[in-house]
Every structure is written in C-alpha cells, then in structure tokens.
Amino acid sequence: xxxxxxxxxxxxxxxxxxxxxxxxxxxxxxxxxxxxxxxxxxxxxxxxxxxxxxxxxxxxxxxxxxxxxxxxxxxxxxxxxxxxxxxxxxxxxxxxxxxxxxxxxxxxxxxxxxxxxxxxxxxxxxxxxxxxxxxxxxxxxxxxxxxxxxxxxxxxxxxxxxxxxxxxxxxxxxxxxxxxxxxxxxxxxxxxxxxxxxxxxxxxxxxxxxxxxxxxxxxxxxxxxxxxxxxxxxxxxxxxxxxxxxxxxxxxxxxxxxxxxxxxxxxxxxxxxxxxxxxxxxxxxxxxxxxxxxxxxxxxxxxxxxxxxxxxxxxxxxxxxxxxxxxxxxxxxxxxxxxxxxxxxx
Length: 346
Ligand SMILES: [Ca+2]
Known about the structure:
The chain is mainly beta. It is 11% helix and 42% strand.
C-alpha cells in the first residue's frame, strides 16, 4: 500500500511537460505591410499577431528587403527605437536557448546597429550588427542575416521575451526567424553493490549516486524507488550512510524497498548514499530502480546492478547412525589398543 501511495504521489506531482513555443516566430502573420513596411506605434497588440509593441516605434517590413525566413521581418527602430515583446509559457527552472536572425536596416546610419534582448528574471544581453559585415556592404537584397543566441532560465510560468532596438535613428537592428530550445537534461542515477558475490545470510552495501549534469539549472523534487530482488532485503540495522540533497531516504530494515524523495541538486552537483542489504536466497540478483522523477517534469533513466548470491557454507553434521558408528569405532580402537599394550608387557 505504501509503495502504491508513493507512485501515486509521483504521478500527481509531476507536472505536464510544456514544450516551448513562440507564436508567429517569423513575423509572417499580421496586417499586410506590403509593398514596403508599416510603422507600428506603442502600445500595439494587433498589427503583428501575438506580438506587443511596448515602447517607441518599430517597422513591420514586407518584401522591401530580404527576410531571414519567409517574406516579413521587423526593424526594431521605426521613427526611433522601439521594443517588441511576447509572453511565452515555459517550464520554471528549465534553461532555454533562443536563436534569432539578426541584421540591420541598411538604408541609413549608423553603421553598427544595437539590440538588447531580455527574458523575465534574467540578465539582458546586447547585440550589434555591422553593415560592413556583408562583402561590399549589406543592402536590401543581401541583408547579411546571422543567427544569434540568448540563453536564459525560466523563472515563472510565463516569460516575457523582449527585443529592444537601441539605435537612436530610424534605421535599427532587424530581427526575424525566432527559435527556442529547451536544454534542460534529466538527472542521472547509478547504483552499485559493495561486492560482486556474497553467500546467503551475508550482507553488503548498495550505494546510489544521483547527478545533476546541467550547467545552469537546479533540479528539485528528485526521487526514485528501488525494489530489491526477492533474494535480498534491507539489512537489520539498515546501515544507511550519506545523504542526498536534503531528500528523504526510506530504507526500512527487513523490507525490500529503498526510496529517495524530495531531493534538490544544484547544477553540476551530485549526491551519494548507501544502505546495507542481506541475502536471503541464492541466485543471480539483478536489481533495477524506477525512473528518476523531478519536480521540473523531466525524467531520468533507471539504474541497474547485479550481485551473485551462493548457498550458505555447509557445516558438517552427524546423523544418529553416524554417531553410533563413530562410538563403535572408538570403542573398537580402544580395545585393540589395550590388547596390543598387554601383549607388549608379556
Ligand atoms: Ca520572417
């Protein structure tokens, strides 16, 4: 019943995995800006579908210049610098890489265009595009689009991604073709027995190591269960050593179950704990854990380890007839000894 309750709890507390999604990521949907462009004044939520022009002015550009993808893109300076942003549903604690195409309006100065990208709760990052980066200079038919990236961690269920033009003219940094990737990877679990083989009634350790391989993201609510094979039980006492990220470790003596729940591991950190197990039957015991769950909803693979258990060492015993035979032999030997001794005296 306890095991069932544990798995039910895992099921209830693992949130649905949300795939990162930017709506209208290439600016292809919105009021038709043909044949050149529309200048959009803040605040505006309708001209470019799913996008909010929140400060200043931007230009919504159609085929007047080459787009990075499709036919439309955005100049982050309309009559002057402006900001365009979108709220995106992301998974808290996950790290994302935003990739976007960057170019510059070649129609006017300055030569170097400035852009600032920000995600809620994260440091901004500044980008520059140089009109001289194209051979012979960038122009409307050769915009020189390059992919840039911005790495951030979602700190709330809704993240605002904002692109702020920072060029103080009407000819700013241009953006197009946004893509977003969730880079958070699951925890890894390994386990090992303290010996390759033991006998029935002997004990050895069973250790578990959980690792958070992410370079930025903390993983929380880490948990797994390990049901021992039928020939092994948790020793009495259980010999528990180590700990794991503040998590709760259950390993009740005499049972076949080890459970970790509620552990937290910072990026690039790991934990190890160990319990003793005792063999109660012979055979090759292969032991596989459950998957490793996290509050972030990403699941790690199970871990497996094996141990060979041989029969208990045989202690020789004598049956009733064996004892009678032994007594008879001892008695016979004694009589024979006495006779030889008497003969030697004579
Ligand atoms: Ca586009």
